[in-house]
Specification:
Helix 2 (about 40-60) runs antiparallel to helix 3. Helices cover about 70% and strands about 0% of the residues. It is mostly helical and about 150 residues long. The chain contains five helices and no strands. The two termini are about 30 Å apart. The longest helix has about 35 residues, at about 105-140. The relative contact order is 0.06.
C-alpha cells in the first residue's frame, strides 16, 4: 500500500473529508443566536501568534542545535517575551481572546499542561512510527529477529 500511496495522499484524503464536512455542516447546523459584530483584537492575536510560532520553532530546533545557541534560545526568549506582551494586553481586557485569569486555577493549568504534553507526544509518535515501521515492512526477516528477541 505504501508503494502506491505516499504521504501526499493523507492530505488529499483529508481535504476531501473536510469539504464533505463543510457541506454537511452548512446545511445541518442552525444559527440559534443572531450574529453580532465583533471587534478584532489585533494586538492580542499578533502577540499570541508570534509567541506560539517562536516557541514552536525554538523547541523544534533543540534537536539540531545546542540549547544555548541563538536559533534555540533566541526563539524561546522571543516567544516568552511575546507571551508576556499578550499577558499585559489581555490582563485588563474584559473581552480578551483568552482570559489570563483562567490560568489562576491550578487544576485547569495542570490539566492543560498534561494535555499539551500528550499532544506533543502523539505528534512525535506520528512522525517516528512510520519511519520505524518502513524497514520492517520492506524486510520481512526483521520481523523474525524482533520475535526472537521478544521471546527471550
Amino acid at each position: 500500500m505504501t508503494d502506491v500511496l505516499n504521504g501526499r495522499w493523507i492530505f488529499i484524503i483529508s481535504l476531501f473529508l473536510i469539504v464533505i464536512s463543510l457541506l454537511r455542516g452548512i446545511y445541518s447546523i442552525r444559527q440559534i443566536n443572531p450574529l453580532q459584530k465583533v471587534k478584532i483584537k489585533y494586538g492580542q492575536w499578533l502577540s499570541l501568534a508570534v509567541a506560539l510560532v517562536c516557541l514552536m520553532l525554538g523547541f523544534t530546533r533543540i534537536a539540531k542545535y545546542s540549547f544555548l545557541s541563538v536559533p534555540v534560545l533566541g526563539f524561546l526568549v522571543l516567544g516568552i517575551i511575546s507571551l508576556l506582551i499578550w499577558l499585559k494586553i489581555s490582563w485588563s481586557d474584559k473581552e480578551a481572546l483568552i482570559s489570563p485569569q483562567l490560568f489562576k486555577n491550578l487544576r485547569f493549568s495542570m490539566q492543560l499542561i498534561a494535555y499539551c504534553f500528550a499532544k506533543i507526544a502523539t505528534l512525535a509518535l506520528g512522525f517516528i512510527f512510520p519511519s520505524m515501521c518502513k524497514p520492517l515492512i520492506m524486510d520481512p526477516f526483521l520481523w523474525l529477529v524482533g520475535l526472537h528477541f521478544q521471546v527471550r
